[in-house]
Amino acid sequence: MAVSQLGLNRIRLELYGCVENPVDVHGQFLNGQISYEEFKTVGSQKINDNNDPNIANPRGFHFTFIDYQIDNMILPMKRKLKANGESIRVNLCLVDFNNGKDGKVSNMSLGENPAEYAELVLETFEHMRNKYGFAPDALEIVNEPNNCTDWRTRTGAKVGTCMIAAVKRLTENGFTLKEVVGPSSAEADRAIADFDQMIQVPGVSDLLTTFSYHKYSGTGTAANRQAILTRAQTHNLKTAMTEHWHDDHAKLMDDLQEAHITYYQRWAYAAPHKSTYIRTDVTDPANPVFTLHDQVRAMPQVFKYVRDKAVQIEVTSGDAAAYINQDGRYAVIIQNATQGPHEVIGLPAGVYGITSSGRATGGYLIETSSPDVTIKAGETLTFRVATTGGLITVFTKSTPGAR
To answer: Exposure string (b/e) for 78-98, b if CB count within 10 Å is 16 or more?
Structure first.
């Protein structure tokens, strides 16, 4: 469903701080040796492998949950995308919310010690390269640092110094990152403040590629998105909305139009609640049921037609966002408020497909296709749709001379 129905081609690989611990706590949980409540006690406990961040003790690291995510999520997506002639983007992100609890306290701080942070990241990259033959494409420094015990003060400065240390170690050991992402703060306004501090760290402006933000606590406002875009344009950066729970297609369009995001992520891929793309029902474990959440039913009209490395182009009027994909194909995404007629001006000659989503009986969004439209150079593409309430996607099917 991730690839074929949703059109996803990127995944966040979560690196928990307890990977650095002589006890394989993820392994104990997955094997049923400890309960979820017990895991929550030890799941954030970091125990330093030794006192030298430049020489790793292999017995001090356990990658069971990294492997679980790769085996069960990344590799299946990787195979499906390869069959489509595409590749997956893997984004490694540290999850480091606290220092342990109920007496299971960490003996080190990653946010306070960039060398130890860099060691953990390097060990993870090397483990993946040695076991799977590939490494992450992107490094997102830490998830919601302003919510993490070790990162809450001087947040931007800590994210920046850890970024410098990690990229240096990775480069020295033969790894090349396509993206370096931060600060990923929990609220958009806090991300702006943390970015302003982070970008002052010497060297960060040379490494950072993507200004990332979340938008909890009602901070997904037009003013905050504009402030993020302005900073990104000033520093020649991309933008990304890397986590939010309950967005629908209209909220996604806000991020596309006002922050010019280059990628988007919900809280997770699948779970029983609305924070994900897929609702899971495991009432009968032998026959699980997976369905798209209604909030995301129109999102594939963006994800499936705006692919990796697409370039956003200017829209002069209308509630829309437009892109040119790497292969030259256009995709115009329009908020579907009326049946039309709709007009798109400025597309090159070609044959265009039209897909729209709207409310059906029962209120659920359904996707329908309209007849293809062929235009010559300079002509306006005009069309109508059957339903309203979702999105419209106008996309290149073929161009003159194409085979």
So the answer is: bebbeeeeeebbbbbbbbbbe
